[in-house]
Amino acid sequence: MERAQERAFADGATRPAGRPEEALELLVHGVGGTTPEEMLDDPRTVRVAGDDTAALFRRAADTADPGAAAVDPTATEGRPVPEAYVWCNLTSGNGTRALWLLLLPFMVVNLAHWMRPSVRDRRTRTVRLYGALVRLVGLTLTVLLVAAACEVALDLAAWQCAGTRACAENHSWLGFLSPTGSGGGWWSAPGRRLALASLVPLALTGLLWYLSRRTWNAYESQPPLARTDEEETGGSALAQPGFWYGRRLVARLRAAHTAAGLLTVAAGVGLAAARHDREPGGPAALAVLGRLLEAALLTGAVLVVWVVCRRGGTDRRVDRDRDGRLVRWLPPGSLVLLLLTFLYAGWERPGWRSHGPLHDDAPFGGLVLLQGLLVIVLAVVARLLHRDLPDARAAMRGLGGPAVALLACALGGVMAGGVAQRVADWLDGTGTSIDGPPVLLTWQASVIPPLLLVLFALCGWLARRTLRRSRAQRAEVDGDYPDETRDPERTHAIARSRAMAALTDSGPLLIAVITAVTLLLGTGALVGAFATGEAPGPAARGTHPFVEGAAETAQVLGSWLIGLGFILFVTWGRRAYKDASARRTIGILWDVGTFWPRAAHPFAPPCYAERAVPDLTWRIDTWTRTTGGRLVISGHSQGSVLAAAAAWQLPPRVRGRVALLTYGSPLERLYGRWFPAHFGPDALAALHRDVDCWRNLYRLTDPIGGPVRVSGGDGTPAVDSPPLKDPLAHGRTDRHPLPTPVLGHSEYQADPAFAEERGMLLARLRPELPAPRPESAP
């Protein structure tokens, strides 16, 4: 009899009377991570699906078979069965993963790609131009990082220090490279020294390639839920079937960036020898080989730029195609060219001696100038896109992407300049035996103190405005608790929490000021380096004593601040991966950055959503199809973004039995403002139409979550609920005899309104509809 009922239900009949309706609440946690015991509020939990990286958990009492993926109806007692999806291990792990923070510039420029303004369909070419410009900026960052490694290993260590007797004597490990005695050892020839030292940037390029390929296999290769063409939905690119399957795009960009790194190393080794061979009296054959080398490097650079500009692939389908032979053979061809460069540079050249810097400021200066021009053109394109479809809530009026791209370039420049400056100080403590790094890198380090002064002044202004806002909100706080006794201290604490939470909305202003000051100071550093040819301190000599002292102070202080910042950066990053409290502090920024696919830079940290979103969609689809029950996706904080992305990916046959409950959600407050093309008003309204059972909870004291600002239509209620009270009581009451805490961003499920909203969502899912017919077994 039981099997007959199951077959009838599978054939589309309604559920038999007397059997409880199956309902599942799929919980998705936010940043900082948590444990399944905390999510399910039960010490006994069972993993029902997944692995050690990401998995589904359920209470042991909610299933008769702990290993079963289906719900035991006899254990639910009319309530939805909670099931926790734990994904925190996708972005955390052992302390060595803190080294990913060194790839921060790559992650930031990848964010700029997704900050494109919303546009109409007729702006396709302009949208492609925006993406190509961001990818070119990302390419310059790869070249800058490898060039900085070349500056440290080739120029400072092998060329200047090993070629100078005084410096080489202070570092015995460079003795075999030093031209001592009549001619030195075999490795003392400048070209051979450079070839040997190039193993450092070559190893860096290989490490970046290895990390990108390893994470590519673990994340981008996850297959998304299979869908047919008629099941595709619009409103946002996140609804496209191939959005979370970036295997081909990352492989293409990885090939181009790896080739760019190898070509940069080849240029650092070969161009110095080619420049020497062009001098009068040099061998004609070597001069010809130098010209051929330069032509080959130029050809390789053009091919790399062409591959980066030509995006390839599509999100409209799951793209499993492979790129052509040109893309696949680009890194091996660049490696062969590098090996030929080693042979060319290592040829015996009598009379070739290393003196002065290996290269002047032209390479770094040209790279910085190119980055500035690309960002300016990107700003023009972004402004045109924003004017096509204005969005009043978009951050910086559509210029958020160019601003973030400029900050990525500034981060890369500061890291390159800081490392070069610190290594130069370590090799030559007296500052007299070698010339040191290019002057431009010293100028870039010197702009950090004035930038910090501006930042401190801005923080002081924001603190003053927050204090004034806190005072202004005291009357509003008292009005929210009309029937309770007033407590001025308690009122002040609640008003202060609300004012502090509102600081998040000042993010666009903060980024705008930092970007403007960075652009101004960066331009000044570029002009100062090329106009004077000296570091800020020596360049200011002979001027007013105050100016001279300020320039020298900025030069020394900037260099030490970079070294200190680098140490703190790695230390905080390691602590954030191992300490949950530290992770919650900076986790939101990191999880936002690694949420997006690597569409602009293949060496950025991996996108965890390319594993999490397919996990959620597969679970929702298979559960609703096999049980016919109702399901609520319950997402908190960043989990609400994953829940929304999963809802976009669901086919229409599933969305009718799925509700979306978000709380503490940054969907509009953060993602909608900074990523308007994908989470703007039109996209969120389309999500509401696709998943009409959607409710959003928020508090005024929450610094991350907020309203999604989507109104109801066609008789459906608005998405946002009224702001939840926080704290639940102003003082001591009969229901709350002890003072209730200000919860802010946490413990939304403890509010009585949470269970009420979840119950109303389940009631709106129309349980009387027949269940869908499951796919027949082969």
UniProtKB/TrEMBL annotation:
<keyword id="KW-0472">Membrane</keyword>
<feature type="transmembrane region" description="Helical">
    <location>
        <begin position="553"/>
        <end position="573"/>
    </location>
</feature>
<protein>
    <recommendedName>
        <fullName>Integral membrane protein</fullName>
    </recommendedName>
</protein>
<feature type="transmembrane region" description="Helical">
    <location>
        <begin position="367"/>
        <end position="386"/>
    </location>
</feature>
<feature type="region of interest" description="Disordered">
    <location>
        <begin position="706"/>
        <end position="745"/>
    </location>
</feature>
<feature type="transmembrane region" description="Helical">
    <location>
        <begin position="398"/>
        <end position="420"/>
    </location>
</feature>
<feature type="transmembrane region" description="Helical">
    <location>
        <begin position="98"/>
        <end position="115"/>
    </location>
</feature>
<feature type="transmembrane region" description="Helical">
    <location>
        <begin position="194"/>
        <end position="211"/>
    </location>
</feature>
<keyword id="KW-1133">Transmembrane helix</keyword>
<dbReference type="InterPro" id="IPR029058">
    <property type="entry name" value="AB_hydrolase_fold"/>
</dbReference>
<feature type="transmembrane region" description="Helical">
    <location>
        <begin position="440"/>
        <end position="463"/>
    </location>
</feature>
<feature type="region of interest" description="Disordered">
    <location>
        <begin position="1"/>
        <end position="20"/>
    </location>
</feature>
<feature type="transmembrane region" description="Helical">
    <location>
        <begin position="286"/>
        <end position="308"/>
    </location>
</feature>
<feature type="transmembrane region" description="Helical">
    <location>
        <begin position="329"/>
        <end position="347"/>
    </location>
</feature>
<feature type="transmembrane region" description="Helical">
    <location>
        <begin position="509"/>
        <end position="533"/>
    </location>
</feature>
<feature type="transmembrane region" description="Helical">
    <location>
        <begin position="127"/>
        <end position="149"/>
    </location>
</feature>
<keyword id="KW-0812">Transmembrane</keyword>
<feature type="transmembrane region" description="Helical">
    <location>
        <begin position="255"/>
        <end position="274"/>
    </location>
</feature>
<feature type="compositionally biased region" description="Basic and acidic residues">
    <location>
        <begin position="727"/>
        <end position="737"/>
    </location>
</feature>
